[in-house]
Protein backbone atom coordinates (compact mmCIF):
# COMPACT_ATOMS: atom_id res chain seq x y z
CA UNK A 1 0.00 0.00 0.00
CA UNK A 2 1.81 3.13 -1.10
CA UNK A 3 1.04 6.43 0.59
CA UNK A 4 -1.61 8.66 -0.99
CA UNK A 5 -1.21 11.79 1.10
CA UNK A 6 1.28 13.05 3.69
CA UNK A 7 1.17 15.82 6.28
CA UNK A 8 4.54 17.60 6.20
CA UNK A 9 4.90 18.56 9.86
CA UNK A 10 7.73 21.04 9.51
CA UNK A 11 8.73 24.35 7.90
CA UNK A 12 11.53 25.93 5.89
CA UNK A 13 13.84 24.07 3.55
CA UNK A 14 13.15 20.57 4.91
CA UNK A 15 9.38 20.99 4.55
CA UNK A 16 9.93 22.06 0.95
CA UNK A 17 12.29 19.10 0.41
CA UNK A 18 9.57 16.68 1.59
CA UNK A 19 6.87 18.45 -0.47
CA UNK A 20 9.07 18.08 -3.57
CA UNK A 21 9.65 14.37 -2.95
CA UNK A 22 5.90 13.85 -2.46
CA UNK A 23 5.08 15.59 -5.73
CA UNK A 24 7.59 13.48 -7.63
CA UNK A 25 6.06 10.32 -6.16
CA UNK A 26 2.47 11.43 -6.89
CA UNK A 27 1.67 11.80 -3.19
CA UNK A 28 -0.57 14.68 -2.06
CA UNK A 29 1.47 16.92 0.26
CA UNK A 30 -0.30 18.91 2.98
CA UNK A 31 1.81 21.63 4.61
CA UNK A 32 1.34 23.13 8.07
CA UNK A 33 2.12 26.71 9.03
CA UNK A 34 2.22 29.25 11.82
CA UNK A 35 1.07 32.87 11.61
CA UNK A 36 4.59 33.95 10.61
CA UNK A 37 4.76 31.39 7.77
CA UNK A 38 1.35 32.01 6.13
CA UNK A 39 3.04 33.15 2.89
CA UNK A 40 6.05 30.81 3.08
CA UNK A 41 7.32 28.79 0.12
CA UNK A 42 6.66 25.39 1.77
CA UNK A 43 2.99 26.41 2.04
CA UNK A 44 2.73 27.83 -1.47
CA UNK A 45 4.27 24.75 -3.09
CA UNK A 46 2.21 22.16 -1.22
CA UNK A 47 -1.11 20.81 -2.50
CA UNK A 48 -2.90 22.01 0.61
CA UNK A 49 -2.05 23.62 3.93
CA UNK A 50 -3.34 23.70 7.50
CA UNK A 51 -2.87 26.56 9.97
CA UNK A 52 -1.42 25.46 13.33
CA UNK A 53 -1.41 28.57 15.50
CA UNK A 54 0.61 31.57 16.52
CA UNK A 55 4.19 32.13 15.45
CA UNK A 56 6.05 30.86 18.53
CA UNK A 57 7.23 27.28 17.88
CA UNK A 58 5.53 26.08 21.09
CA UNK A 59 2.21 27.36 19.72
CA UNK A 60 2.63 25.87 16.25
CA UNK A 61 5.23 23.36 15.00
CA UNK A 62 5.91 22.01 18.51
CA UNK A 63 2.22 21.75 19.37
CA UNK A 64 1.64 18.01 18.90
CA UNK A 65 -2.13 18.26 19.41
CA UNK A 66 -2.47 20.93 16.72
CA UNK A 67 -0.35 18.90 14.28
CA UNK A 68 -2.39 15.74 14.93
CA UNK A 69 -5.62 17.67 14.47
CA UNK A 70 -4.29 19.02 11.15
CA UNK A 71 -3.49 15.46 10.05
CA UNK A 72 -6.96 14.21 10.98
CA UNK A 73 -8.85 17.02 9.30
CA UNK A 74 -6.69 16.87 6.16
CA UNK A 75 -7.39 13.13 5.90
CA UNK A 76 -3.75 12.20 5.24
CA UNK A 77 -2.46 8.68 5.74
CA UNK A 78 1.01 9.59 7.00
CA UNK A 79 2.95 12.29 8.86
CA UNK A 80 6.51 13.25 7.88
CA UNK A 81 8.18 15.06 10.80
CA UNK A 82 11.28 16.38 8.98
CA UNK A 83 14.10 17.14 11.47
CA UNK A 84 13.95 19.10 14.73
CA UNK A 85 10.54 20.06 16.20
CA UNK A 86 8.54 16.85 16.92
CA UNK A 87 10.72 14.49 14.86
CA UNK A 88 12.42 12.72 17.77
CA UNK A 89 9.66 12.86 20.37
CA UNK A 90 8.49 9.31 21.04
CA UNK A 91 5.15 10.56 22.45
CA UNK A 92 4.36 12.32 19.18
CA UNK A 93 5.25 9.30 17.04
CA UNK A 94 3.14 7.15 19.37
CA UNK A 95 0.19 9.53 19.05
CA UNK A 96 0.48 9.37 15.25
CA UNK A 97 0.51 5.56 15.43
CA UNK A 98 -2.49 5.54 17.81
CA UNK A 99 -4.42 7.79 15.41
CA UNK A 100 -4.07 5.01 12.84
CA UNK A 101 -1.63 7.02 10.70
CA UNK A 102 1.84 6.13 9.47
CA UNK A 103 4.72 7.96 11.13
CA UNK A 104 7.45 8.45 8.49
CA UNK A 105 10.28 7.18 10.67
CA UNK A 106 11.01 4.33 13.04
CA UNK A 107 8.49 2.94 15.56
CA UNK A 108 8.01 5.22 18.60
CA UNK A 109 9.63 2.55 20.81
CA UNK A 110 12.86 2.80 18.77
CA UNK A 111 12.89 6.61 19.02
CA UNK A 112 12.45 6.19 22.76
CA UNK A 113 15.29 3.67 23.11
CA UNK A 114 17.79 5.59 20.98
CA UNK A 115 16.85 8.89 22.66
CA UNK A 116 17.92 7.51 26.04
CA UNK A 117 21.71 7.66 26.40
CA UNK A 118 22.04 4.62 28.66
CA UNK A 119 19.59 2.50 26.65
CA UNK A 120 21.34 3.42 23.38
CA UNK A 121 24.72 2.40 24.85
CA UNK A 122 23.22 -0.91 25.90
CA UNK A 123 21.94 -1.51 22.35
CA UNK A 124 25.40 -0.65 21.00
CA UNK A 125 27.11 -3.09 23.37
CA UNK A 126 24.64 -5.84 22.40
CA UNK A 127 25.45 -5.18 18.73
CA UNK A 128 29.18 -5.28 19.57
CA UNK A 129 29.58 -1.66 18.56
CA UNK A 130 32.24 0.15 20.62
CA UNK A 131 31.14 3.01 22.87
CA UNK A 132 33.35 5.62 24.55
CA UNK A 133 34.87 3.82 27.58
CA UNK A 134 32.92 4.89 30.62
CA UNK A 135 31.43 3.83 33.93
CA UNK A 136 27.93 3.24 35.18
CA UNK A 137 26.56 5.90 37.51
CA UNK A 138 28.98 6.49 40.37
CA UNK A 139 27.59 6.72 43.89
CA UNK A 140 30.56 8.40 45.59
CA UNK A 141 33.79 10.28 44.96
CA UNK A 142 35.79 7.10 45.69
CA UNK A 143 33.68 5.17 43.16
CA UNK A 144 34.38 7.86 40.58
CA UNK A 145 38.14 7.65 41.18
CA UNK A 146 38.04 3.87 40.86
CA UNK A 147 36.03 4.16 37.63
CA UNK A 148 38.47 6.72 36.20
CA UNK A 149 41.42 4.38 36.90
CA UNK A 150 39.65 1.84 34.76
CA UNK A 151 38.74 4.03 31.75
CA UNK A 152 41.98 6.05 31.85
CA UNK A 153 42.66 9.79 32.33
CA UNK A 154 41.80 12.43 31.19
CA UNK A 155 38.11 11.86 31.89
CA UNK A 156 34.85 13.75 31.65
CA UNK A 157 32.30 13.71 34.43
CA UNK A 158 28.84 13.78 32.89
CA UNK A 159 25.35 14.17 34.32
CA UNK A 160 23.18 11.14 33.50
CA UNK A 161 20.21 13.41 32.83
CA UNK A 162 22.26 16.04 30.97
CA UNK A 163 22.27 16.90 27.30
CA UNK A 164 23.38 19.40 24.69
CA UNK A 165 26.83 19.68 26.26
CA UNK A 166 25.50 20.77 29.64
CA UNK A 167 26.63 19.18 32.88
CA UNK A 168 30.02 18.01 31.52
CA UNK A 169 33.26 18.63 33.46
CA UNK A 170 36.83 17.53 32.62
CA UNK A 171 39.38 16.10 35.04
CA UNK A 172 42.99 15.20 34.21
CA UNK A 173 44.02 13.68 37.55
CA UNK A 174 42.48 11.92 40.55
CA UNK A 175 42.89 15.10 42.66
CA UNK A 176 41.02 17.17 40.09
CA UNK A 177 38.40 14.48 39.79
CA UNK A 178 37.66 14.55 43.53
CA UNK A 179 36.69 18.25 43.32
CA UNK A 180 34.93 17.95 39.98
CA UNK A 181 32.62 15.09 41.00
CA UNK A 182 31.23 17.06 43.93
CA UNK A 183 30.62 20.11 41.74
CA UNK A 184 29.12 18.00 38.97
CA UNK A 185 26.73 16.26 41.36
CA UNK A 186 25.59 19.60 42.78
CA UNK A 187 25.15 21.12 39.33
CA UNK A 188 23.31 18.07 38.01
CA UNK A 189 20.93 18.10 40.97
CA UNK A 190 19.94 21.73 40.40
CA UNK A 191 19.93 21.67 36.58
CA UNK A 192 18.41 18.25 35.90
CA UNK A 193 16.74 17.26 39.18
CA UNK A 194 19.05 14.25 39.62
CA UNK A 195 22.60 14.18 40.99
CA UNK A 196 23.51 10.99 39.07
CA UNK A 197 26.84 11.33 37.26
CA UNK A 198 29.16 8.96 35.43
CA UNK A 199 32.77 9.02 34.24
CA UNK A 200 33.84 8.75 30.62
CA UNK A 201 37.20 8.83 28.85
CA UNK A 202 37.92 12.29 27.35
CA UNK A 203 38.98 12.03 23.73
CA UNK A 204 41.60 14.59 22.69
CA UNK A 205 40.66 15.65 19.18
CA UNK A 206 38.35 13.13 17.60
CA UNK A 207 36.56 13.44 14.29
CA UNK A 208 32.79 13.27 14.09
CA UNK A 209 31.93 10.74 11.40
CA UNK A 210 28.38 9.51 10.89
CA UNK A 211 26.88 6.74 8.78
CA UNK A 212 23.59 7.02 6.90
CA UNK A 213 21.40 3.93 7.08
CA UNK A 214 18.14 2.88 5.43
CA UNK A 215 15.96 0.09 6.74
CA UNK A 216 12.62 -1.19 5.51
CA UNK A 217 9.83 -3.12 7.23
CA UNK A 218 10.94 -6.35 5.51
CA UNK A 219 14.19 -6.67 7.44
CA UNK A 220 16.50 -5.13 4.84
CA UNK A 221 19.12 -2.75 6.26
CA UNK A 222 21.77 -0.96 4.20
CA UNK A 223 24.29 1.81 4.82
CA UNK A 224 24.84 4.69 2.41
CA UNK A 225 28.41 5.37 3.50
CA UNK A 226 29.60 8.11 5.82
CA UNK A 227 29.66 11.86 6.28
CA UNK A 228 32.43 13.86 7.97
CA UNK A 229 30.83 16.50 10.22
CA UNK A 230 33.63 17.65 12.56
CA UNK A 231 33.42 21.36 11.72
CA UNK A 232 31.13 22.36 14.57
CA UNK A 233 30.54 25.36 16.79
CA UNK A 234 28.81 24.69 20.11
CA UNK A 235 27.92 21.23 18.81
CA UNK A 236 26.21 22.72 15.76
CA UNK A 237 27.55 21.46 12.46
CA UNK A 238 28.39 24.15 9.92
CA UNK A 239 30.05 22.29 7.02
CA UNK A 240 29.85 18.59 6.16
CA UNK A 241 31.43 16.43 3.49
CA UNK A 242 31.23 12.96 2.01
CA UNK A 243 33.20 10.79 1.88
CA UNK A 244 35.21 11.50 5.07
CA UNK A 245 38.71 12.58 3.99
CA UNK A 246 41.59 10.60 5.45
CA UNK A 247 39.43 7.73 6.72
CA UNK A 248 41.16 4.42 6.04
CA UNK A 249 39.22 1.87 4.00
CA UNK A 250 39.39 -0.55 6.92
CA UNK A 251 37.85 1.91 9.39
CA UNK A 252 35.24 3.00 6.85
CA UNK A 253 34.15 -0.60 6.41
CA UNK A 254 34.08 -1.23 10.17
CA UNK A 255 32.05 1.94 10.80
CA UNK A 256 29.50 1.16 8.11
CA UNK A 257 29.17 -2.46 9.32
CA UNK A 258 28.75 -1.26 12.90
CA UNK A 259 25.98 1.16 11.86
CA UNK A 260 24.09 -1.62 10.09
CA UNK A 261 24.53 -4.03 13.06
CA UNK A 262 23.26 -1.41 15.50
CA UNK A 263 20.26 -0.56 13.29
CA UNK A 264 19.37 -4.25 13.02
CA UNK A 265 19.77 -4.76 16.75
CA UNK A 266 17.28 -2.00 17.62
CA UNK A 267 14.79 -2.94 14.87
CA UNK A 268 15.27 0.28 12.96
CA UNK A 269 12.92 1.38 10.17
CA UNK A 270 13.39 4.33 7.80
CA UNK A 271 16.32 6.69 7.26
CA UNK A 272 18.62 7.13 10.23
CA UNK A 273 22.10 8.29 11.13
CA UNK A 274 24.54 6.57 13.45
CA UNK A 275 27.08 9.03 14.83
CA UNK A 276 30.61 8.08 15.85
CA UNK A 277 33.73 9.72 17.20
CA UNK A 278 36.87 8.54 15.42
CA UNK A 279 40.30 8.96 17.04
CA UNK A 280 43.35 7.30 15.54
CA UNK A 281 42.27 3.80 14.55
CA UNK A 282 39.55 3.61 17.20
CA UNK A 283 35.90 4.60 16.81
CA UNK A 284 33.08 4.95 19.30
CA UNK A 285 29.31 5.14 18.90
CA UNK A 286 27.87 8.35 20.36
CA UNK A 287 24.22 8.50 19.31
CA UNK A 288 21.68 7.71 16.64
CA UNK A 289 19.50 10.35 15.01
CA UNK A 290 16.20 8.67 14.24
CA UNK A 291 15.14 11.01 11.42
CA UNK A 292 16.28 12.55 8.17
CA UNK A 293 19.41 14.64 8.76
CA UNK A 294 20.04 18.26 7.71
CA UNK A 295 23.13 17.15 5.78
CA UNK A 296 21.44 14.33 3.82
CA UNK A 297 22.04 16.03 0.41
CA UNK A 298 25.76 15.18 0.39
CA UNK A 299 24.91 11.49 0.73
CA UNK A 300 22.39 11.90 -2.11
CA UNK A 301 25.14 13.52 -4.22
CA UNK A 302 27.68 10.72 -3.75
CA UNK A 303 25.25 7.78 -3.92
CA UNK A 304 22.62 9.07 -6.36
CA UNK A 305 19.88 7.98 -3.93
CA UNK A 306 16.85 10.10 -3.04
CA UNK A 307 16.74 9.56 0.73
CA UNK A 308 13.43 11.36 1.29
CA UNK A 309 11.75 9.36 -1.48
CA UNK A 310 13.17 6.20 0.16
CA UNK A 311 11.65 7.30 3.49
CA UNK A 312 8.24 7.71 1.88
CA UNK A 313 8.45 4.37 0.05
CA UNK A 314 9.52 2.57 3.24
CA UNK A 315 6.63 4.22 5.14
CA UNK A 316 4.27 2.93 2.43
CA UNK A 317 5.48 -0.61 3.14
CA UNK A 318 7.74 -1.06 0.10
CA UNK A 319 11.07 -2.84 0.13
CA UNK A 320 14.23 -0.75 -0.28
CA UNK A 321 14.72 0.17 -3.94
CA UNK A 322 18.40 -0.84 -3.69
CA UNK A 323 20.51 -3.57 -2.14
CA UNK A 324 23.83 -2.92 -0.41
CA UNK A 325 25.84 -3.87 -3.49
CA UNK A 326 23.93 -1.31 -5.62
CA UNK A 327 25.05 1.56 -3.40
CA UNK A 328 28.32 3.06 -4.56
CA UNK A 329 30.07 6.17 -3.23
CA UNK A 330 31.22 8.25 -6.18
CA UNK A 331 33.13 11.57 -6.20
CA UNK A 332 33.04 14.10 -3.36
CA UNK A 333 30.38 16.39 -1.97
CA UNK A 334 30.44 19.30 0.50
CA UNK A 335 27.55 21.07 2.20
CA UNK A 336 27.69 24.63 3.53
CA UNK A 337 25.01 25.64 6.03
CA UNK A 338 23.75 29.15 5.44
CA UNK A 339 22.50 30.46 8.78
CA UNK A 340 20.93 33.84 9.51
CA UNK A 341 23.66 34.63 12.03
CA UNK A 342 26.45 37.19 12.18
CA UNK A 343 29.82 35.42 12.48
CA UNK A 344 31.46 38.76 13.31
CA UNK A 345 29.19 39.27 16.32
CA UNK A 346 29.58 35.89 18.01
CA UNK A 347 26.96 34.38 15.68
CA UNK A 348 24.18 36.67 16.89
CA UNK A 349 20.92 35.56 15.26
CA UNK A 350 19.95 37.92 12.45
CA UNK A 351 16.27 37.58 11.54
CA UNK A 352 14.89 40.17 9.14
CA UNK A 353 13.94 40.90 5.57
CA UNK A 354 15.91 39.52 2.65
CA UNK A 355 16.01 42.50 0.31
CA UNK A 356 17.99 40.81 -2.44
CA UNK A 357 19.05 37.28 -3.29
CA UNK A 358 21.24 35.69 -5.94
CA UNK A 359 21.61 31.91 -5.79
CA UNK A 360 24.61 30.03 -7.20
CA UNK A 361 24.02 27.57 -10.02
CA UNK A 362 25.77 25.69 -12.77
CA UNK A 363 27.21 22.16 -12.79
CA UNK A 364 27.30 20.19 -9.56
CA UNK A 365 25.53 22.83 -7.46
CA UNK A 366 22.37 22.35 -5.39
CA UNK A 367 20.62 24.83 -3.12
CA UNK A 368 18.00 23.63 -0.63
CA UNK A 369 16.14 26.67 0.66
CA UNK A 370 12.64 27.97 1.23
CA UNK A 371 13.89 31.55 1.37
CA UNK A 372 12.93 33.85 -1.51
CA UNK A 373 13.84 37.50 -2.15
CA UNK A 374 11.45 39.73 -0.22
CA UNK A 375 10.78 37.07 2.44
CA UNK A 376 11.21 37.88 6.09
CA UNK A 377 13.28 35.43 8.15
CA UNK A 378 11.18 35.11 11.32
CA UNK A 379 12.88 35.19 14.74
CA UNK A 380 10.92 32.20 16.05
CA UNK A 381 12.72 29.21 14.56
CA UNK A 382 16.13 27.77 13.74
CA UNK A 383 18.58 30.10 12.02
CA UNK A 384 19.28 27.71 9.12
CA UNK A 385 17.89 29.37 5.98
CA UNK A 386 19.63 27.47 3.18
CA UNK A 387 22.00 24.63 2.39
CA UNK A 388 24.42 24.92 -0.49
CA UNK A 389 25.85 21.59 -1.57
CA UNK A 390 28.29 20.83 -4.36
CA UNK A 391 29.55 17.65 -6.00
CA UNK A 392 32.61 16.96 -8.17
CA UNK A 393 34.55 13.86 -9.25
CA UNK A 394 37.36 14.58 -6.75
CA UNK A 395 37.62 16.38 -3.41
CA UNK A 396 39.96 19.03 -4.83
CA UNK A 397 37.43 19.81 -7.55
CA UNK A 398 34.60 19.87 -5.01
CA UNK A 399 36.54 22.45 -2.96
CA UNK A 400 37.07 24.55 -6.10
CA UNK A 401 33.40 24.25 -6.99
CA UNK A 402 32.45 25.24 -3.45
CA UNK A 403 34.62 28.38 -3.66
CA UNK A 404 33.08 29.26 -7.02
CA UNK A 405 29.49 28.71 -5.82
CA UNK A 406 30.04 30.63 -2.57
CA UNK A 407 31.42 33.55 -4.59
CA UNK A 408 28.20 33.60 -6.64
CA UNK A 409 25.94 33.45 -3.57
CA UNK A 410 24.57 36.82 -2.41
CA UNK A 411 22.06 37.51 0.34
CA UNK A 412 21.18 41.17 1.01
CA UNK A 413 19.43 42.54 4.07
CA UNK A 414 20.86 40.34 6.78
CA UNK A 415 24.21 38.80 7.75
CA UNK A 416 24.72 35.09 7.05
CA UNK A 417 27.46 32.47 7.36
CA UNK A 418 28.30 32.60 3.62
CA UNK A 419 31.38 34.78 4.22
CA UNK A 420 32.56 32.43 6.98
CA UNK A 421 32.47 29.50 4.54
CA UNK A 422 34.52 31.46 1.99
CA UNK A 423 37.20 32.01 4.64
CA UNK A 424 37.04 28.41 5.87
CA UNK A 425 37.82 27.10 2.39
CA UNK A 426 41.17 28.93 2.58
CA UNK A 427 42.14 27.22 5.83
CA UNK A 428 44.87 24.60 5.62
CA UNK A 429 43.09 22.08 7.88
CA UNK A 430 39.95 22.31 5.75
CA UNK A 431 41.81 22.08 2.44
CA UNK A 432 43.81 19.09 3.77
CA UNK A 433 40.77 17.47 5.40
CA UNK A 434 42.71 17.07 8.67
CA UNK A 435 40.29 19.06 10.85
CA UNK A 436 38.68 17.57 13.97
CA UNK A 437 35.85 18.59 16.32
CA UNK A 438 38.05 21.20 18.06
CA UNK A 439 39.28 22.94 14.87
CA UNK A 440 36.45 25.40 14.19
CA UNK A 441 36.13 26.73 17.73
CA UNK A 442 39.91 27.08 18.06
CA UNK A 443 40.04 28.96 14.77
CA UNK A 444 37.14 31.25 15.72
CA UNK A 445 38.77 32.04 19.07
CA UNK A 446 42.05 33.05 17.38
CA UNK A 447 40.46 35.19 14.69
CA UNK B 1 8.53 60.17 40.08
CA UNK B 2 8.98 59.36 36.42
CA UNK B 3 8.38 56.33 34.34
CA UNK B 4 10.80 54.32 32.22
CA UNK B 5 10.18 51.55 29.73
CA UNK B 6 12.56 48.63 29.18
CA UNK B 7 12.57 47.65 25.48
CA UNK B 8 13.51 44.52 23.57
CA UNK B 9 16.84 44.55 21.74
CA UNK B 10 15.80 41.74 19.39
CA UNK B 11 12.58 40.40 17.92
CA UNK B 12 11.40 37.06 19.32
CA UNK B 13 9.29 35.63 22.14
CA UNK B 14 9.23 37.26 25.58
CA UNK B 15 9.28 35.17 28.74
CA UNK B 16 8.68 36.36 32.31
CA UNK B 17 10.50 33.36 33.81
CA UNK B 18 13.85 31.61 33.23
CA UNK B 19 12.09 28.27 32.58
CA UNK B 20 8.44 27.19 32.43
CA UNK B 21 8.44 25.84 36.01
CA UNK B 22 10.49 28.62 37.60
CA UNK B 23 9.31 31.72 39.43
CA UNK B 24 9.15 34.94 37.39
CA UNK B 25 12.29 37.07 37.39
CA UNK B 26 10.30 39.98 38.85
CA UNK B 27 6.67 40.76 39.61
CA UNK B 28 4.68 43.98 39.63
CA UNK B 29 5.66 46.08 42.63
CA UNK B 30 9.18 44.66 42.86
CA UNK B 31 12.08 47.08 42.97
CA UNK B 32 14.92 46.48 40.54
CA UNK B 33 18.42 47.86 40.27
CA UNK B 34 20.05 48.75 36.97
CA UNK B 35 21.39 45.54 35.42
CA UNK B 36 18.84 43.22 37.06
CA UNK B 37 17.27 40.64 34.76
CA UNK B 38 13.55 41.25 34.24
CA UNK B 39 12.80 38.75 31.46
CA UNK B 40 14.08 36.64 28.61
CA UNK B 41 13.72 36.99 24.83
CA UNK B 42 14.08 33.89 22.68
CA UNK B 43 15.36 34.55 19.17
CA UNK B 44 16.13 31.65 16.83
CA UNK B 45 16.40 29.15 19.68
CA UNK B 46 18.88 31.31 21.60
CA UNK B 47 17.94 33.09 24.82
CA UNK B 48 18.87 36.65 25.70
CA UNK B 49 18.30 38.10 29.16
CA UNK B 50 16.50 41.43 29.29
CA UNK B 51 18.29 43.71 31.80
CA UNK B 52 16.82 46.75 33.48
CA UNK B 53 18.58 49.80 32.04
CA UNK B 54 17.38 51.95 34.95
CA UNK B 55 16.53 51.43 38.64
CA UNK B 56 12.94 51.61 39.82
CA UNK B 57 9.79 49.76 40.78
CA UNK B 58 8.05 47.46 38.28
CA UNK B 59 4.68 49.08 37.57
CA UNK B 60 3.53 46.93 34.65
CA UNK B 61 4.41 44.13 32.27
CA UNK B 62 3.49 45.48 28.82
CA UNK B 63 3.81 42.05 27.13
CA UNK B 64 2.29 38.79 28.33
CA UNK B 65 4.49 35.76 29.05
CA UNK B 66 5.27 33.86 25.79
CA UNK B 67 3.99 36.67 23.56
CA UNK B 68 5.78 37.71 20.37
CA UNK B 69 7.77 40.94 20.45
CA UNK B 70 9.39 43.14 17.82
CA UNK B 71 12.72 44.91 18.08
CA UNK B 72 12.40 48.05 20.21
CA UNK B 73 9.03 47.02 21.66
CA UNK B 74 8.27 48.16 25.24
CA UNK B 75 8.38 45.17 27.60
CA UNK B 76 8.33 46.37 31.20
CA UNK B 77 7.38 49.71 32.73
CA UNK B 78 9.26 51.02 35.75
CA UNK B 79 8.45 53.86 38.12
CA UNK B 80 11.73 55.61 38.63
UniProtKB/TrEMBL annotation, chain A:
Keywords, sorted A to Z: ATP-binding, Biotin, Ligase, Nucleotide-binding
Residue span(s) of domain ATP-grasp: 121-316
EC id: 6.3.4.14
Nucleus keyword on record: no
The keyword ATP-binding appears for this protein: yes
Annotated PROSITE patterns: ATP_GRASP, BC, CPSASE_1, CPSASE_2
Domain Biotin carboxylation: 2-445
A GO term for molecular function: biotin carboxylase activity
Catalytic class of the enzyme: ligase
Record field: catalytic activity: N(6)-biotinyl-L-lysyl-[protein] + hydrogencarbonate + ATP = N(6)-carboxybiotinyl-L-lysyl-[protein] + ADP + phosphate + H(+)
Record-linked Pfam families: Biotin_carb_C (PF02785), Biotin_carb_N (PF00289), CPSase_L_D2 (PF02786)
Function: This protein is a component of the acetyl coenzyme A carboxylase complex; first, biotin carboxylase catalyzes the carboxylation of the carrier protein and then the transcarboxylase transfers the carboxyl group to form malonyl-CoA.
Cited PANTHER family: BIOTIN CARBOXYLASE, CHLOROPLASTIC, PYRUVATE CARBOXYLASE SUBUNIT A
Record-given protein name: biotin carboxylase
Lineage summary: Bacteria, Bacillati, Actinomycetota, Actinomycetes, Pseudonocardiales
UniProtKB/TrEMBL annotation, chain B:
A GO biological process held by the record: fatty acid biosynthetic process
Domain Lipoyl-binding residue range list: 3-79
Organism, as annotated: Actinomycetospora succinea
Parts forming coiled coils: none
GO CC entries: acetyl-CoA carboxylase complex
Function: This protein is a component of the acetyl coenzyme A carboxylase complex; first, biotin carboxylase catalyzes the carboxylation of the carrier protein and then the transcarboxylase transfers the carboxyl group to form malonyl-CoA.
UniProt keyword list: Biotin, Fatty acid biosynthesis, Fatty acid metabolism, Lipid biosynthesis, Lipid metabolism
Molecular-function annotations in GO: acetyl-CoA carboxylase activity
Lipid biosynthesis recorded as keyword: yes
UniProt-listed Pfam families: Biotin_lipoyl
Pathway(s) annotated for this protein in UniProt: Lipid metabolism; fatty acid biosynthesis
InterPro entries from the UniProt entry: AcCoA_biotinCC, Biotin_BS, Biotin_Carboxyl_Carrier/Decarb, Biotin_lipoyl, Single_hybrid_motif
The protein, known as: Biotin carboxyl carrier protein of acetyl-CoA carboxylase
